[in-house]
Amino acid sequence: MNDTIHIAQPVSHEVLWDKFRAGDKEAFGQIALHYYQLLYNYGLNLNNDEDFVSDCIQELFLELWERRAFLSKTDFVKTYLLRALRNKIFKESIRLRRFKQPQDVQFVAGADISIESQIVLNEEETAQIRQLSAVLETLTTRQQEIVYLRFYQGLEFDEISGIMGLTRQSVANLLHRTLKKLKESWTIAFLISFIFLFSPQ
């Protein structure tokens, strides 16, 4: 008698993407459930109208399902969805004349930190988050976006390039200028704290 217990291995998002393209509704649901909050947080950094961002995400997933047979294979599902939402929000903003101006950006520091992490933040860390929010507000729209993608989402230059529609060198230059500006306001200790608090675990 074989008593070996077989533990199901988690399915990669790339495999789920292929199943979704083949018409698997459960795989599509898992993708939507996993990435919805990430897309929502990112969308709010492009347009601070919560209902508008939610509508764009819903329309995006509806369009993906309708066009599933024509979608290409990808090894970077998160990058694909972020880029698709970015394009969707910009197109809809222009169509509805609701394009977000740089001065309207309200980047929320710590938006992607789990509730559990927020509970254990001490007073010093809370003060650092407030300071970080104030510093980020001095950045341009694209500078805030590259900080979000690089440090909050941990994306590589090539992935950021695809999302923002920039060359890899332009991404590197933009990040360099952004970090240079941030360092003007931060101490080295605070910069380390930022990376520790907000980099993906």
UniProtKB/TrEMBL annotation:
Gene3D superfamilies: 1.10.1740.10, Winged helix-like DNA-binding domain superfamily/Winged helix DNA-binding domain
Domain RNA polymerase sigma-70 region: 34-91
Keywords in alphabetical order: Sigma factor, Transcription, Transcription regulation
Record GO terms (molecular function): DNA binding; sigma factor activity
GO biological process entries: DNA-templated transcription initiation
Pfam families in UniProt: Sigma70_r2, Sigma70_r4_2
Residue intervals of the RNA polymerase sigma factor 70 region 4 type domain: 130-182
Family assignment from sequence similarity: Belongs to the sigma-70 factor family. ECF subfamily.
Identification of the protein by name: RNA polymerase, sigma 32 subunit, RpoH
